[in-house]
Structures are given as structure tokens and as C-alpha cells.
Specification:
Elements lengths: L10 H58 L2 H10 L4 E2 L2 E2 L5 E5 L4 E3 L11 E7 L2 E8 L5 H55 L13 H51 L6 H29 L7 E4 H11 L1 H6 L3 E5 L6 E4 L1 H18 L5 E8 L3 E8 L33 H11 L3 E7 L3 E9 L6
Parallel strand pairs: 8-10
Antiparallel strand pairs: 1-2, 3-4, 3-6, 5-6, 7-9, 10-11, 11-13, 12-13
Helix pairs in contact: 1-3, 3-4, 4-5, 5-9, 6-8, 8-9
Length: 456
Amino acid sequence: MHFLSLPKQSLRRRVMVLITIVMLAMAGLDLGAAHWSLQRSLFTYSQHNQADQAADWAQLMAVLYDEFGSWNQVRQHLTREAGLQIDGQKLGQIKAVIVTNTGNVIRTQSDAVIAQSWKSSPVLFHNLRVGTLYVQAYVPLQVQTLKQRIIRDFDEAQFIVLAVTSLLAFLFMTIWIRSFLKPLEQLAVSASSMTAGDFDTPLPQNGDEEIQKVVQAFSVTRQRLHETQETRRKVLADIHHELRTPLNVIANRLEAIHLGLFHWDEQTAAILQEETERIQTIVDDLEQLNDVQTGVQKMECNWVNVREWLPKLAVLFAAEGTGRSVDLQLSIPDEPLHVWMDKNRMSQVVVNLISNALRYTPAGKRIFIQVECMAQGVVLVVRDEGIGMDPQHLPFIFERFYRVEPSRNRETGGAGLGLAIVKEVVNAHGGEVTVRSLPGQGTCFRIFLPKHNPNF
């Protein structure tokens, strides 16, 4: 219907218009059906009445036949006396034909011709048929008047009943629809508030099961949007915090040189280069993290022999481990082991975890790099005997810019993007990374990788 496509109409109005149309249509159909049913009943009554009329006229003819003794005498009497009447209709006013047993035909009017619609009845004399009477059907005046009165009174009563019933039903439906749509209206208010940045508008608590499902889905969506907004705000604040210090160092040193407080020398150049590289590292990590999350940079996966790949990565940290007096121990099963993965991305993951382990493992302790075989895939383990972390930090260490050190000291940690990149790369491989840690007992990262990821 056209009204359903009209713009800027409330759902309540559309539902009310639709229900009103349906109710009017039903009322009209009910009134029409009742009127037709009454007309049908009156027509049936009229047919029976006409059959009774024919029987009454036949009895009257039988009486006349009995009185005059022959049909010829009856014909003469009918010609002279046409004032006989039944149901207010005189014999001379109707068309009737009597066909006697001998084949004679007696007509009340000269132009009376038997038609299919005429009613017939036998004329019985002492229970013997002496003829057949055919009468043109007619409706007595009183019956016709009564019929019109019945139809008029019935239509009026039916209209009143339908009007009252429809009004009560309309009022009931109005109240019910208002109650039914109230949760949706509250949900619309919450959605409007959410677009304005208000995520605390209460959600409707009542409603049918389907509406509650919509409310629950909206609640989850709102919560996620709120978390996304908070994350974006936090990321922007963290980026600002991370970039502010090196930019301040560069700006202050350049200003001092401009004012003549410092001279350009190798030390100044080294400081500016170091801070510039720090900014470039943060930008590169952010770009890489965004590429992995959005899928801009597709994984270039191949079958990688873990027994050849992992020892090469461990060798990269041998010298640094020796310099820190930290023992790196590598353990790989003897059997051939191949994993479908992006070798460069996963190398970055392992390098990141080993670097963190070296950073937080004191001299004289060990770092274990292990591979465990499973039916569905492999598990890469990087475990250290370092300082460990308080369990309260574990749920957040994979977030961007999160640091365990409250001071956010860059001398003991990076920008806080490394573990976020680890998680995103592992997830992109269809794997999972978990962590266990206790203060003073070290940290253990476990990475599960399926042998073959069907998403690639």
C-alpha cells in the first residue's frame, strides 16, 4: 500500500492506520455477509410462502369444484366472481392456470401462460387429483413490508453492533500498540542519545521476547561502540603521549641551537637521530598493526619447516643473551614439522617475544624456546625466568600502548605496540596466543598455530 512507503511517519501511526483499514474492511465484510445471509433467508422464506400460496389457491379451487360439481361451472363462476383473495391478493389480480385431468385449461386472465417460475399444486377432491393449479409467484404486500422492515432493522442493529465493537477493539488495540511499541520508542531514544555520545541512557526492560532480543543486540552493539570510542580516545591519548617526548626533545634541542645555547655537534645529531628513529618506529608499528587488523596487507603463506626456521631466529639473540648472562635454550621435536604461515610475520612475532624476555630476565636466568606438536597444529612457547607480571595486568597486555610499568619508562620498554602486533598476527593465522605470569617467577607465552588455516 502507498501509505506504507510514506516518509517520516512514525511506526505507531502506520500500525494504527493499517489496523484501522483492516478493522473497517472486516466490519464491511461482516456487515455485507450478514446482509446477504438475511436476504438469503428471506428469499427461502418467500419461496416457501409462495408454495403455500399455491396450495391455498388449490384448496380453494377444490372447494369451488365440490360446490359446482364441474370445471365448466367453476370457469363461469371465476369469470363472474374474481374477488376471492388470499394473503391480500385477489384472484383477478393474479395470473393462474388450472389444467384439469381431461386436459381443459381454465385461465384467470386471458394472457396467463404457464412459466417455469410459477408455483404448482394439485387440486384434490376426496383425495383424488382432479386437476393442477399453476400460479404466478407473488409476494404479499404485508410480507414485502415485513421483509423491508426486517432488513432495515437488522442492518441498523448490525451497524450499531459493529460500530461499538470496532470502537472498543480500536481502543483496545491503541492501548496494546502503545504498550507494544513503548520499548521500541525507548530504544529509539537510546539510539539518539548514543549518536550524541551518551551511552548511559537506560534501555527498556520489558517487552516481548523478540523485542528483548533486539534490545539485547542493541545493548551489545552500544557496549562495543562505547568500548571502541574509549579505545580510540585512549589510543589517541597514548599516541600523543608517545610522540610528545621525542618531539619535545627534538624541538627543544633545535630551539636551543637556534638561540645559540648549543652548537651543532655529533652528540646533538645522534640525539636527534635517536628521537627521530623512535618516532619512525612508533609510526611503522602503528601502520603495521592497522594493516594486519584491516587486512590491507594480505598474509603471504607457505609451508615452513619449523626445524629450519626457528633455530635461525634463536641464533640472532645468542650474542645478546651471552652479553646479559642469560641462557637461551631451544627445544624442537626430532620429527619433520611444517606449518602453513607467513614466515616474515611470524618471525616478527617470535623476535618480539624473545626480545621482551631478554629485556625482563635478570643475569643468571634462562629463556626457553620450545615447540610442542599437537594433532591440529603446533604450539610455540617462549618462557623466561624473569621478573614476571602481576596477574591484574595480563588481560590488558595485548592492548595498544599498554605498559606494565606505571611510569611508562621507555628505557625498560617500547611504545607498547609489540604485543598488540603479536596478537593480531597470530589471530590472522587462525591461531591463539595466551600468557601466564607471576611476579618473580617469570612469564610464559604460548602460541597455537593450526598446521593449515583454511582461511588462506
